[in-house]
Amino acid sequence: MTDEDKENIAAIIGIVLATMLLGVFFVFFVGFAAAKFWNLFAPPMLGWPAAEWRNGIGFIGFLMCLRGCLGSELSFKPRRS
Question: What residue ranges do the domains of the chain occupy?
Answer without folding.
Answer: 24-69
